[in-house]
Amino acid sequence: MITISLCMIVKNEEQVLERCLASAAPLVDEIIIVDTGSTDRTREIALRFTDRLLHFAWIDNFSAARNYSFDAATQDYILWLDADDVIAPDNQQKLLELKRTLSPDTDSVSMIYELSRDEYGNVAHSLRRNRLIKRSNRYSWQGAVHEVLIVGGHIVTSDIAVAHCPLTDADPGRNLRIYSQREAQGLPLTPRDRLYYAHELLEAQQYRQAAAHYERFLDEGEGWIEDEVTACSKLADCYHALGEAEQEWNAICRAFRYDTPRPEFCCRIGFSLLHRGKYEAAAHWYRLAIELPAQEKWALENHACRTWLPHLQLCVCYDRLKLHDLAYAHNEIARTYRPDDAAILQNKAYLEPLVSRQDSASDNQEAG
């Protein structure tokens, strides 16, 4: 059985740290917490779980702090978490089983990162991260902000999930400030830096500046394919916010240069066609979003685009095409994901009489 060091960096996390550590402590053999300057009860809470509480003077560089925590680890493998992450009981059992059975020739284990859930408990957004790594390989983090762990070798893909459960964002402008300062200082931006700088600008609703950085990132062609696909999606968001429909359409279609269709882009095309009154064409793309086989992609995934959303939109398309039985059927599928959704319930009330009349007319026709 392998042994595991849990490595974390924290600052002012008194609201969430105990929840995280309570979920992870039974799974690991060592806990290393690096504090970067807390002024609340974070350190007190950490000491309830470990005596390996270290200090790192904050230098606006997340990778430096994470690498410091990794350097302090002593066990076979390193598991990293953020303070607002939680490992749910079912995933705790999966991780314990992985710990018992993992081959020692494994260099890294990737896990699902559940970024958010909707009000019905469905996973709304997720991506995949290298989460458990072999300590002796001395893999390191790169990037001052939105840091990335650079790994290689034998990577195992697991179905273990870590849930991101933030309560508040104490400093929502922090990352944008760091990127802006680095740009002002003339420090070079890697392709990944430029992409995440654009993400921060988009989050701050600086759409024109964000679009310029996304365009440059894509034009330079030095990014990872998953990041290029994500950039196309976010670029479309920018142009949608700016009311530039043609540029938005071009950004959506640009994604097909990099990979096969993804549900999100199918839904985007369907939405554009639906609002132009091209109902049959829109229905084609929404059906494709549902039918595409699930793939282990590392990019951010919007789960709505392969679950309830295309069914809800197919309901609209088929209603416009007077195919009320199909509209009703797809609305009912959407309702399995969102049972109390007002729009879905309204569709149900509207369609049930139409389907009933359609069925009666069909019965009368057969009788005649």
TrEMBL record:
One of its GO terms (molecular function) is transferase activity. The keyword Methyltransferase does not apply. Pfam families: Glycos_transf_2 (PF00535). It comes from the Bacteria. Keywords: Transferase. Residues 5-104 form the Glycosyltransferase 2-like domain. This is Glycosyl transferase family 2.
